[in-house]
Amino acid sequence: LFVDGPLAAGQSVRIEGAQAHYLVNVLRLGAGEAVELFDGASGGWRAEIVEAGKRAVLLDVVAQERVQAMPPDVWLLFAPIKKARTDFIVEKATEMGVRRIRPVFTRYTNSERVRPDKLRAHCIEAAEQCGGTFVPELDAAAPLDRVLGDWPEDRRLMFCDETMVAETGLAALRDAGQGPWAILIGPEGGFAPEEAERIRAMPQAVSVTLGPRILRADTAAVAALTLWQAALGD
Ligand code: SAM
């Protein structure tokens, strides 16, 4: 169960609302029973239920049970699309293990509204469902120009470019080698020509094709993460 951290042994935690309902009425847990808590950054902690009330459950954190296995240092940058599909992207990115998720506004991005608190809830849910304990950092949406403007020197950028015809997938990534990475996926309308030009001109950019067919942005995000894992995942 996710709790806003940080968690530590000996701490007492109070769970309310839907999470309390889940423990008491769905899992039918009671005093003395164990629950695994995670705060998204330090791993999994064993906690014991002290009191299981209708409205709240009190727990004592006993000890750390799982040390946080950090996912590879890869960010996912994507242009927000329709809400359900944006939710899908952040859920799959969390399951597949990214360190940081950065929604970016590009010239042809057509959905302005991105609610970081809602997206973070999807990341937490995805981490809980797949039994993970790491919740990616989630940035507020920012213009692509600004994000690229202060791009870290040492972070390579996997530019998923549907106009690439040559087979520049695995080989290009492998040649670029290990280290901090980011994956960039464009909006439904793709990147504007001047955007693509600017990205290609970056020394850190590695242009990559995800195959001969044009994928929807959410499909492309999963395909790109899979390709990156196949080439460089540890
Ligand atoms: N510009 C395309 C068009 O107008 O038909 C559509 C863009 S596609 C829906 C959204 C994003 O997914 C693209 O900007 C790109 O980042 C990624 N993408 C989709 N298919 C791809 C492919 N075959 N290779 C590389 N990237 C792809």
TrEMBL record:
<dbReference type="GO" id="GO:0005737">
    <property type="term" value="C:cytoplasm"/>
</dbReference>
<dbReference type="Pfam" id="PF20260">
    <property type="entry name" value="PUA_4"/>
</dbReference>
<dbReference type="InterPro" id="IPR029026">
    <property type="entry name" value="tRNA_m1G_MTases_N"/>
</dbReference>
<feature type="domain" description="Ribosomal RNA small subunit methyltransferase E PUA-like">
    <location>
        <begin position="15"/>
        <end position="61"/>
    </location>
</feature>
<dbReference type="Pfam" id="PF04452">
    <property type="entry name" value="Methyltrans_RNA"/>
</dbReference>
<dbReference type="InterPro" id="IPR046887">
    <property type="entry name" value="RsmE_PUA-like"/>
</dbReference>
<feature type="domain" description="Ribosomal RNA small subunit methyltransferase E methyltransferase">
    <location>
        <begin position="72"/>
        <end position="229"/>
    </location>
</feature>
<protein>
    <recommendedName>
        <fullName>Ribosomal RNA small subunit methyltransferase E</fullName>
        <ecNumber>2.1.1.193</ecNumber>
    </recommendedName>
</protein>
<dbReference type="InterPro" id="IPR006700">
    <property type="entry name" value="RsmE"/>
</dbReference>
<comment type="similarity">
    <text>Belongs to the RNA methyltransferase RsmE family.</text>
</comment>
<comment type="function">
    <text>Specifically methylates the N3 position of the uracil ring of uridine 1498 (m3U1498) in 16S rRNA. Acts on the fully assembled 30S ribosomal subunit.</text>
</comment>
<keyword id="KW-0698">rRNA processing</keyword>
<keyword id="KW-0949">S-adenosyl-L-methionine</keyword>
<keyword id="KW-0808">Transferase</keyword>
<keyword id="KW-0489">Methyltransferase</keyword>
<dbReference type="GO" id="GO:0070475">
    <property type="term" value="P:rRNA base methylation"/>
</dbReference>
<keyword id="KW-0963">Cytoplasm</keyword>
<dbReference type="InterPro" id="IPR015947">
    <property type="entry name" value="PUA-like_sf"/>
</dbReference>
<dbReference type="InterPro" id="IPR046886">
    <property type="entry name" value="RsmE_MTase_dom"/>
</dbReference>
<dbReference type="InterPro" id="IPR029028">
    <property type="entry name" value="Alpha/beta_knot_MTases"/>
</dbReference>
<dbReference type="GO" id="GO:0070042">
    <property type="term" value="F:rRNA (uridine-N3-)-methyltransferase activity"/>
</dbReference>
